[in-house]
Amino acid sequence: MLDLFAPIAAACDTSIAAEHRAPVAVVGAGAIIDVAHLPAYRGAGLEIAGIFDINLQRAREVAARHGLPRVYSSLEELLGDEHVRVVDIAVAPQAQAGIVRQAIAAGKHLLCQKPFVPDANTGVELIALAERAGLLMAVNQQLRYDEGMAAARAMVDAGWIGEATTMTFTVNIATDWTPWPWLVRSDRLEIMYHSIHYLDAIRAVLGEPARVFCAGSRTPGQVAAGETRTISTLVFPGNARGLVHTTHENRTGDPEAVFRIDGTEGSIKGTLGLLYDYPHGRPDTLEVSSRVAPTDGWLAYPVTSRWIPDAFAGPMGSLLRAMATGGTPYPTARDNLGTIRLVDALYTAMDYVVSRLAALDAEQVGVAAGVAPPSPQPAEARAAIAVLLQDLERAVSSERVGNLQVLMPGMAEQDVAAWQAFFQRYTQLAARYAIDHLSTRGDTGYATVRTLYMYVPAGGGAQRETRLRQAIRFTRTPNGWRVANIREAP
Ligand SMILES: NC(=O)c1ccc[n+]([C@@H]2O[C@H](COP(=O)([O-])OP(=O)(O)OC[C@H]3O[C@@H](n4cnc5c(N)ncnc54)[C@H](O)[C@@H]3O)[C@@H](O)[C@H]2O)c1
């Protein structure tokens, strides 16, 4: 190994120190436990106390194949095993949250499979439960530990490509969903179960996007119910941008799975070997060209391990290390909530494009005329206020005070004048409101909100940003929730 790569290889190490190891029990005996979790844990020298699956026969087969000492006959029996300190879950995803609640009540640390939760609210609830119980909860978003990906991130962290400006994944493969009946039936498919890995990997490098766009579709003749082709674009505060373009309906037998990170001082590019013959695949490839390292052109990094099974030792090792040292696992469930929110935002953007196009055409006429109708709001106050804030983001982007007045009917004359002046000073406006805290009582709601404005000054120039903390008061009218006023937060 070139000396240059020694610190990069060290950052990719997924071995688990003997003093960090603790007994683990596994819930679920499905495909991924069989081909990835258990081989990785055996390779890392972990003690697996036993396994439980509602399909007992399947649990017995997997236990026999991997030499596990015990098959539990119920979840309660597994959780009652005092020897077990960590529960590793990989079940059909709708069953995961219930198992997590029971495992927390039993005092076990947790490694959950992706997708961690079906929606962010469930994630917030589970994280609060674990934190209150003093338990650690990590999510098995193990592409972060796949050697090609981990080495790329270590190179970015070492400053080898300067400021990272673009990160892209292009994946074109043939996926047979039929061994997983629950996937074949799922309305949400490609992003929720596959591209979630790439989105999480991009977040690990570029942080949280401020805006997203997504187009998704099915392919004539496909078996699965959900979307199998997606194009997701991520816009980050500042210069960075991300793109994930995935299709699972490759009909020409030439799989492709490539990624690339560009920066101001160089670039990194590679392939995800696993996807060239799932689930065996081949090692990733990785090359870097850096003016900082420096590399004098493209230099190949020698990848020596695989996504399946090797990367699966990463999240478990990190959880065990955190338990032993009082640290934090990487990534935590709280971090993963950002990935769940991103997935949700992409589906919202996709629905918006596909099914609401006609409605939007009509609405656009109203936006242009300065009389955009507010969107229909759900009955529940929090959900309704979330819809109202999305309308507000769009009204600000329309740069028409008339659109704001529909959402803020009580706007005083000086507020109208202030917004008009604002729209004259700035163009190409985009606003984003992220609620930090929201309380509602009767017909009134109060929120503290992190506000991000992106804009180009009217005189021209580069895109700029302003970040504010604002206090917003909401009121429920016979037509739905509206904004009563917006002030700087104290
Ligand atoms: N790279 C990855 O991280 C990766 C890859 C594949 C699957 N996964 C995730 O792992 C999970 C399982 O996937 P899989 O491919 O093993 O699916 P699978 O359908 O092969 O297996 C799921 C197993 O869960 C069991 N099960 C269902 N409900 C249960 C419950 N309440 N208690 C105990 N067992 C229960 C089923 O009997 C089945 O044996 C899914 O969430 C999937 O998204 C992750």
What does this structure look like?
The chain has 490 residues and is α/β, with parallel strands linked by helices. The protein has 3 domains: 3-142 and 312-338, Rossmann fold, CATH 3.40.50; 144-305, Dihydrodipicolinate Reductase, domain 2 (2-Layer Sandwich); 356-488, Roll (Nuclear Transport Factor 2, Chain: A), CATH 3.10.450.50. The chain is built from 15 helices and 17 strands. The protein has helices at residues 6-11, 31-43, 56-66, 75-79, 96-105, 120-132, 147-157, 181-185, 190-206, 313-325, 333-354, 357-369, 381-398, 401-407, 413-425; strands spanning 24-27, 48-52, 86-89, 109-112, 137-139, 164-172, 211-217, 229-235, 241-247, 256-263, 266-271, 285-290, 299-300, 426-441, 444-457, 464-477, 480-488. Helix 5 (96-105) packs parallel to helix 6 (120-132). The longest helix has 22 residues, at 333-354. The radius of gyration is 25 Å and the shape is globular. Nicotinamide-adenine-dinucleotide (NAD) is lined by residues 27-33, 52-55, 58, 90-93, 95, 113-114, 140, 142, 180, 193.
Question: What is the helix fraction of residues, given as a range?
Answer: 25-40%
Structural class based on helices, strands and sheet pairing: alpha/beta
CATH topology value of the largest domain: Rossmann fold
Structurally, the number of domains stands at 3
Can you count the beta strands?
17
CATH class of the largest domain: Alpha Beta
CATH homolog superfamily of the largest domain:
NAD(P)-binding Rossmann-like Domain
Net shape: globular
The oligomeric state is single chain
The CATH architecture of the largest domain comes to 3-Layer(aba) Sandwich
How far the N terminus sits from the C terminus, by CA atoms, comes to 55 Å
Lateral arrangement of strands in the main beta sheet: 7-8-9-6-10-11-12-13
Name the bound molecules: nicotinamide-adenine-dinucleotide
Count of alpha/pi helices: 15
- Low-confidence regions: 353-362
Average of the residue pLDDT scores: 93
- Our estimate of the beta-strand percent is 25-35%
